[in-house]
Structures are given as structure tokens and as C-alpha cells.
Amino acid sequence: MITAKLKHLLTNRDEVRLQKFMRSSQYWSEEEVRAHQRVKLTKLLVHASERVPYYQKLFKELGAHPSDFSELETFKTFPVLTKSIIRENFEDLISTDASERGLIKNSTGGSTGEPLVFYQDRRFHAFADAARIRGWYEAPGFKAGETMGVIWGDMRDVGDDYSASQRIATVLRSGEVLLNAFNLSEERMYRFYRWLCLFSPKLLRGYVTALVDFAAFLERRGLALPTVKGVVLCAETVSPEVQRYLERVIGAPSYNTYGGRELSLIAFECGAKMGLHEVSENNLVEFEPIETSHAENLCEIVVTNLNNYAMPFIRYKLGDLGVPSKKGECSCGRGLPLIERIVGRTTEVMRFADGTAIAGEMFIHLMKDIGLRQYQFVQQDENSVTLRMHRDEALDGTLVNRIREVYVPFLPSSVKLKIEPVECFNKTLTGKFRFVFSEIARDD
Asked: Which domains does the chain have, with CATH numbers?
């Protein structure tokens, strides 16, 4: 969209400088990337030890100095930050000079429990904006300001509905044609499709399951979006089968991304499809191995944001699981470290009475040969797993028997697999769909 592109070209010098920097830094060697991270990490630790009451106290208790943790190997011994620690020490985590940095309040959507409130500063948002331009537009091969259809579920970002004048103003201002993922009725999706036809976006971006719902709508109606040349996947884990489905129906390659409110964009997929590139200029990503059945190299992800001095998140456990890549440098030439895949949330790990832990990825992986498009595996106690299915499918005895044959051998002998027929599936407070979750797991 011309107006959105013009706005991008006229952004302030700092934004332009950061965007230019990130176009260059992504092609540094991994050694250069790590050296840059060490410099930023050292500065952050010094700031935290001098200006953030929580970390002042922590360094004193440890009897340590920031220089003791400035190397990436020794940094792994620094205590982690959790959601419960943030809630209990909220005021003490705010820097004493935060007001000078432009304190901006933010929060998670509370999709797995109580929303987490925190602050970020202008510097954080400047780097985050530059990373999103690179990950959402440039990595897939487009320019910032290109018109994009967006299916999103957070009311802070996307309104409930739009008049024609509001929609036109939004497109001219941001280049985005918006649809709220909370309500994907046939009528609303058709109106969205008509607006997409009018504004001819080159990209689609949104929640994975919302994009799947919209693709299914296009397929049912026999509709096409010939101007769309790329699909950016956000906010939820995605399987190769789902990516292939979206690419077939929409007729364009898809690009997976990983991020969150607390840290913004953490990783993005390029056209080489060798994994997700870490946004190493903004975040230092670590992987802590966990033990589960039927899942190799699974790790809990720990992230330090290197830019937010107003309320530093140092070695923050955000509750996600992933697998680090062993492939080395990507064939695209970027030196940014790779993540093989994002698996899901720690609340998707089911832990049973006999001590067995099973990652949610296993439940999704086994479903690929059965073919259910919508389902939910839910753990409500330590001795059972409930599979929620559409009512008509749950009445198919042959299908249910096939599901039991596939899943029961992978569960502890004491665990019962229950089938629960449902008319519809609940989504999270921010409109995300969760295929697997444990109601008894802690998200702290």
C-alpha cells in the first residue's frame, strides 16, 4: 500500500538505522553474533546490578559481580526468572531510571492462567519493531509496508469489527487488513475475503489455527487469493502437515515465527526452511534439556532480552519447549543460530502418577495418520487423558477404536484414555486454539 510504504520510508532516523543494522547483522558469522551478544549482555548485567533492586539484592546474595557471568558458559549458572518471581517482585524488577527510558505497560494474554503484567521501554520497542520488519516482511522476500491480511486474536491489537471507513483508514495507515480471530463465522470470513480482494495483499499473517479455519473456508467456497505470495505463521506451534495444507489451499509458501509479548519476535523462518533463525541482536536464547518419553532433545527455552533496561528479563523461563538445531549454518547465509522447531508449552507436558512425562508433541504427531483436523487432548488428573472430538466423529465406533489402537500403547498402563464428544472447542482468552494441554500443570 503506497501510504503505508511512504510511512515506512519516513520513519525516524533511529528506526531506519536499526533496520539497516539488522539487514547487515543477520549475515554475521555465528562467532560475530556471539561476540555482539556478550557485549550487550555485560552492559545489561551491569545496569541490572546498579539500577534494578531485585537484581541488586540477587547479586549481593550470590556474592557475585556482573563480570562473573559475562561469558555465555558461566551465564548459564545465573538464576532463572519465572512468572511467579515476577509477580512476587514486580516493583523491585523495575529500574530506578525507568521513567527516563519511557515506561510502556504490557501484558500477556493469560492463555494458560493469570495474565503477566510487565513494563518495556522505548529501546525495547525500537529493536522489536526492526526485528518484526525483518522477520515478517523481509525474510519472506517482501518490503515493509506491503499490504498484509492479518487474522489476530488480541483485542489490544485488533478491534472486534470495523466500519468501511475505519477499515480503509487502517489499511492506509498500517497496510494491514484485519480480522479478529475470536469470531470466525462464515459471514465475517467472507467479508474479510472481499476486503482482501479489494486491497490485494501480498502477505497473510495470523494465528496458525485461525489461518487454518480461513483456509478451510476458502476451500469450501472454492475461493482463491491470487495476490497472496506468502503466509506468516504466528502465536501457535505448527506441524509440517498444517504448513503443507495452508500452502496448498492458499497457493503460497508459509513462514513460521516464534515470539511472545514479553520478548517480541524470538525467531523466524527464512526461505531455506532449515529451521527458525534466532533474533540474536535482541535476545539470548538458551535450551535446558528436560526428560520426557517419546521425544528426543526436547528442551525448555530460557531467554534473556538484551534491550529492555526498564524491567530486565534475565534468563526468563517463558514456559515454551523447543529443539535446538544441529544443522550448523543455514544455506541462506545468515549466521543467526537456528532452532530446529518449537514444540509447545510446558503446560503441554503431561505428567502421570507413575512418574512418566509425555510431551504434547507426541499426541499431535500420532494424529497425522488418523486425520482429525480439530481435537483436544486434555489432562485433568494424573491417571487419565481426555480426547475431545466433534460429536459426530465421537459416534463413529470404528474411528474411536482406531484412535485407541494408536494412542493406548504410548500411555502408561495405569492411564485411561477417555473420549468426550463436544459441539465446539474452547479457545484461550486471546483466541488461540490448543490441541494439547494439562489442567494440572503449573505455568510459573
From this structure: 350-438 (3.30.300.30)
